[in-house]
Design brief:
Oligomer: heterodimer
Family (chain B): Belongs to the CPA3 antiporters (TC 2.A.63) subunit C family.
Subcellular location (chain B): Cell membrane
Largest interface: A-B, 116 and 87 residues
Strand content of chain A: under 5%
Pfam family, one (chain B): Oxidored_q2
Helix content of chain B: 55-70%
Keywords (chain B): Cell membrane, Membrane, Transmembrane, Transmembrane helix
Structural class of chain A: mainly alpha
Membrane topology (chain B): Multi-pass membrane protein
Strand content of chain B: under 5%
Number of helices of chain A: 38
Radius of gyration of chain A: 38 Å
Number of strands of chain A: 4
Largest sheet of chain A: 2 strands, antiparallel
Helix content of chain A: over 70%
Shape of chain A: elongated
Order of helices and strands of chain B: HHH
Chain lengths: 958, 112
């Protein structure tokens, strides 16, 4: 564990603690407890800057699944640090903003902050993890927390739709990325990103490199909402605005950029990477900005703007990848400048877009609408908000003196640089790059101005607003103002960032180039002379202003594009037909008939098991070691088979039950023959109690009907049964014929007395060697008995099950009525018998450790004595004789067993360790006492409790 | 002996499966009960039969039969007792509430 691990875990820990904390202090807004978390982390990451700036990286590992090469390794270099600062810095501002945005009395704020913190932790995990599998886990976690946050107002249908859409698309990309990671692992044999980068040269010509690249890019493009996967982002705007500002513009959607940047050292330098990343980026830039113009909802406009801006950064990462090709030549610095531009714009975009989203949130909050057709003239009412909006929009449009201007100029310079490329078919296509970049920027200018002026200037339309507009509270204004201030500061003094954040990040994206040429130079000047890019900006302003004036008249600008055929329709239609197809498929075999399902299962069982056995040549029969067989045993076996076969033919319930009981007793005999005294005892008692129970329960069930089935059905059933029977016979034969490895039983036989002090090996296994199994087993029993109790007691409130059919009560009698003539004899005999059985059960319980017996057998026998008592004297009288709540007895038994187990902790031994010793007691002589006996006592009590609970519950009900 | 036992086990399984496939709840429960018996015998047979004295070290025998399947079966017997009881009560309550013990009539709603 290191501080970095702690930094990732802190938000998760806070997420767990926040609901507890806020329930203790109800009066304060939960956000105030959350705020110190990201603020602290931000300070911590700031303090790491000097170290990272000097080229040090921080690494720490926690072993997780070393056998699979998966360890929780964290790694902080320039790129990771940049993202960590964005995540925690913007996180702090967003939390502050949300305190005023979400009304404590109306919204589930605790839930909101839990999700937000989960996201923050996961996102930190994505950018700091060195291990691909850990990265993947955090990556999907961000998708899930994004899903939860989009669906925060889950009563709205649009919210749920948007949440599902974002989840389906990003998780689909995540899966593709996982496949890409696995391909990388196949090529390099490691999941560590640094080690993979170290082997980048070795795998450069590997056949799997291209598929891996495509799959990883799919993950990046879906997450960063690149065309055509951008469709989830506008729908994600259903989330509360702080979430949109944080996840869907500043951080999560940049995870795709992070991925591309992180894997640049592996993939960059090839034509495919260059064209895919630049191409998708440039297309998303133009497409997003064009679609943004048409939006009337402020947040939808900002969403498309985000698509376009992410495309811009993506394309810059693509341009910069050419630097890897020109590595070592004098030209590389010119191409690498594109990477610096990408990093710079990434920071700038987070700042100005964050401010704009917060402004949109304020407008929505204070006027009740985000529709720019209804807005206008807000400048007079919200001067502070307007200032923040102005800075944000001008920065977005790329106007001086704001930070967006500088990175936009750098973007143009990089695009113009493409004209000089003469590889990868660029001779033909390079002229498109500056043209596309310029066109996209004109649209960007246009929608920025639309956003700003149509909201804040013009005529106020008070009748269309839900509220009377007024300025927002200070807490809501502060975060966008801080961001606006940063936009100005970084615009005027870009070199504050140049060597603190940008250069280290570039160094992580282009490590090989730097090792050759030492430090990378980042030159950002506010005034860079009358260059081509400056003229491009002037042309943008001119063209943009003309378009702005013409906006209302040009339908190509303000009407939605293609109503019918759209990607959204394709998504919706695809989802719908998938659902329908799977529904049809499911309905084809899920008929609601349990028997039909059983037939599927059993057929599969026969085919799969049979084929496996044949395939592995497992049917070997070695008769040599078989035990001999006496006539007596043959007779028992024959009786058993006869009884079993007769069951389906039985006409009455009673016969069927008794025949099954007969099978059980025959099995008991086999246990005796096969030297298993414990089993024989247990089976005998269980069989007796079971038959009692059978008869008790089926007293009222209808007569068995002959099964009226058509022959085809019956034949299927017979065939399947016969198949199972034959298969099991063969398996039994081959299993007893061969043994693949030595049994562990010898160990138990050897150690039973030495280590556990017991001579009855079976009992010692149960209470000592495998005590944990037994503990869980009595718990299962307890659950079964409580289930029975619940079925009968809770079902008593009729109609609780919501069943339509009115139940014709078949019962004519309501209590057990034993034949009167037997009463006297039964009672007299039982008095003695009960005493004897009880004492014998205690003997069996105690003898268990050395001789046949033990907790199970003792408990069952005690229970059967009690059953006999209640049969002879009636339920009422026996509860008066023995006023015990058997559910308590069961609980007590479980508690005793559990405490015995826990007790071993006091002696520094693992759970359920037992000790034993021998004592000389008066009268009883030398006696062995083991803590295992205490555990067995727990078993005994639990079994008595369970059995009696079952019998009494059923007996009382009937 | 193993041959005969395997045959017995096969019969128990076949009859158990046949009963499970029937319509009546009672038959189904009896079927699971028979299946359980079959499994117990299968476990015991798999570890070879009658290879020594019962696994009680007081017997001072040279060889003992395998204690492990016995421990497994003991657990299984008790658990199956609990499960079978639960089945019974379920069947009994289902009949009481719905008036039938026929599986075909106990189907859920089409659109559930």
């Amino acid at each position: 564990m290191s501080l970095l691990h702690a930094a990732i875990l802190l938000p998760f820990i806070l997420a767990v603690g926040i609901p507890l904390l806020s329930s203790l202090l109800r009066s304060a807004h939960t956000g105030w407890f959350v705020l110190p978390g990201p603020a602290l982390l931000f300070a911590y990451f700031l303090s790491r800057i000097p170290a990272v700036q000097e080229g040090q990286s921080i690494t720490a590992a926690v072993r997780w699944i070393p056998s699979l090469g998966i360890d929780f390794t964290v790694y902080l270099d320039g790129l990771g640090l940049l993202f960590a600062l964005l995540i925690t810095g913007l996180g702090s501002l967003v939390v502050l903003y949300s305190i005023f945005y979400l009304d404590k009395s109306k919204e589930a704020v605790d839930r909101f902050y839990v999700y937000l913190l989960l996201f923050m932790g996961a996102m930190l995990g994505v950018v700091i993890s060195d291990n691909l599998m850990v990265l993947y886990g955090f990556w999907e976690f961000t998708s899930i927390s994004s899903f939860l946050l989009i669906a925060f107002w889950h009563r709205r249908e649009r919210s749920r739709y948007g949440a599902l859409k974002s989840m389906l698309i990003t998780v689909f990309g995540g899966f593709a990325m996982l496949a890409g990671f696995i391909l990388l692992y196949l090529m390099t044999g490691t999941f560590s990103i640094r080690e993979i980068i170290g082997q980048a040269d070795a795998i450069a010509n590997h056949a799997l490199l291209l598929p891996a690249m495509l799959l990883i890019l799919l993950g990046a493009f879906t997450k960063s909402a690149q065309f055509p996967f951008h469709i989830w982002l506008p729908d994600a705007m259903e989330a509360p605005t702080p979430v949109s500002a944080y996840l869907h513009s500043a951080t999560m959607v940049k995870a795709g950029l992070y991925l591309v940047a992180r894997f640049s050292p592996v993939f960059a330098g090839g034509a495919e990477w260059f064209w895919l990343v630049s191409g998708f980026g440039l297309f998303s830039l133009v497409y997003g900005s064009y679609r943004a113009i048409k939006q009337t909802d402020l947040k939808a406009l900002l969403a498309f703007s985000t698509v376009s801006q992410l495309g811009l950064i993506m394309s810059l990462l693509g341009f910069g990848s050419a630097a890897a090709y020109y590595s070592g030549t004098g030209d590389y610095q010119l191409y690498a400048a594109a990477i610096a531009a990408a990093v710079f714009h990434l920071i700038n975009h987070a700042i100005f877009k964050g401010a704009l989203f917060m402004v949109a949130g304020i407008v929505d909050h204070e006027t009740g609408t985000r529709d720019i057709r209804k807005l206008g003239g807000l400048m007079a009412f919200m001067p502070v908000t307007f200032s923040a909006a102005l800075i944000g929009a001008f920065s977005l449009a790329g106007l001086p003196p704001f930070n967006g201007f500088l990175s936009k100029e750098m973007f143009f310079r990089a695009a113009l640089q493409m004209l000089r490329m003469d590889i990868w078919n660029m001779q033909t296509w390079s002229v498109l790059f500056p043209v596309v970049a310029w066109t996209g920027s004109v649209f960007t200018f246009l929608y920025s101005m639309l956003l700003l002026f149509r909201t804040f200037t013009g005529k106020l339309q008070p009748d269309k607003l839900e509220k009377k507009p007024h300025e927002a509270p200070l807490g809501m204004l502060l975060p966008p103002l801080v961001l606006g201030l940063l936009a100005v500061v970084f615009g005027l003094f870009p070199n504050l960032l140049a060597y603190t954040l940008i250069e280290p990040a570039v160094a992580s994206i282009l490590p090989r180039e730097l090792s050759a040429a030492g430090k990378f130079k980042v030159d950002i000047y506010f005034w860079h002379g009358w260059t081509a890019e400056l003229f491009m900006t002037i042309a943008i302003v001119a063209a943009g202003t003309i378009l702005y004036k013409l906006y209302r008249r040009l339908t190509v600008l303000n009407r939605p594009l293609l109503r019918r055929i759209s990607l959204n329709a394709a998504y919706d239609g695809g989802l719908r037909s998938l659902e329908m197809a799977s529904q049809r498929l499911t309905n084809a075999y899920m008929t609601g008939s349990v028997r039909r399902y059983l037939i599927y299962i059993l057929t599969f069982f026969i085919v799969a098991l049979g084929l496996t056995m044949i395939g592995s040549d497992a049917f070997r029969f070695d008769t040599s070691g078989y035990a001999d067989m006496s006539a007596y045993e043959a007779a028992v076996a024959a009786a058993l088979i006869l009884a079993a076969v007769a069951v389906p033919f039985a006409r009455s319930r009673l016969t069927a039950i008794i025949l099954t009981g007969a099978v059980g007793y025959m099995v008991t005999l086999f246990f005796v023959l096969f030297r298993a005294p414990d089993l024989a005892l247990t089976q005998m008692i269980v069989e007796t109690v079971s038959v009692t129970l059978f008869l008790l329960c089926f007293y009222h069930l209808p007569k068995l009907r002959r099964e009226k089935l058509n022959v085809r059905f019956k034949l299927t059933h017979v065939l399947i049964s016969a198949g199972v029977g034959i298969l099991v016979t063969l398996i039994a034969l081959s299993a007893s014929g061969s043994r693949a490895f030595d049994s562990i039983s010898d160990y138990y036989l050897a150690e039973s007395y030495n280590s556990a002090g017991g001579r009855n090996v079976v009992n010692v296994i149960l209470v000592d060697f495998r005590g944990f199994d037994t503990l869980l087993e009595i718990m299962v029993l307890g659950i079964a008995s409580l289930g029975i109790y619940a079925l009968i007691k809770l079902g008593a409130d009729s109609g609780a099950g919501g069943l339509q059919t009115p139940a014709p009560r078949p019962a004519k009698q309501t209590s057990i009525r034993l034949p009167a003539s037997n009463d006297v004899i039964l009672r007299t005999v039982s008095k003695g018998a009960i005493t004897i059985i009880l004492f014998y059960s205690w003997y069996l319980f105690y003898a268990g450790h050395h001789n046949p017996g033990g907790g199970f057998i003792g408990g069952l026998l005690t229970a059967s004595a009690l059953v006999l008592m209640s049969m002879a004297f009636g339920m009422k009288l026996s509860t008066r004789i023995l006023p015990v709540d058997f559910r308590r007895v069961m609980a007590l038994g479980l508690l005793v067993a559990l405490l015995t187990g826990i007790g071993s902790f006091a002696f520094d031994a693992p759970f359920l360790s037992h000790a034993y010793d021998y004592f000389d007691l008066p009268l009883l002589g030398e006696i062995g006492l083991a803590t295992a006996v205490l555990f067995d006592l727990g078993v005994y009590l639990a079994v008595v409790g369970v059995t009696m609970t079952i019998i009494y519950t059923i007996g009382r009900d009937i | 002996m193993e041959l005969f036992m395997s045959l017995t086990i096969g019969v128990l399984f076949a009859v158990g499966v046949y009963l499970i496939l029937s319509k009546s709840l009672l038959r189904i429960i009896l079927g699971t009960s028979l299946l359980t018996q079959g499994v117990h015998l299968l476990l015991l047979t798999m570890s070879r039969l009658k290879t020594g004295a019962p696994p009680l070290l007081g017997e001072k025998a040279d060889a003992y039969v395998d204690p492990l399947p016995q421990a497994l079966i003991l657990t299984s017997i008790v658990i199956s007792f609990g499960v079978t009881s639960f089945f019974f009560v379920l069947a009994y309550k289902a009949y009481q509430k719905l008036g039938t013990d026929n599986m075909e009539e106990l189907r859920g709603d089409e659109h559930e």
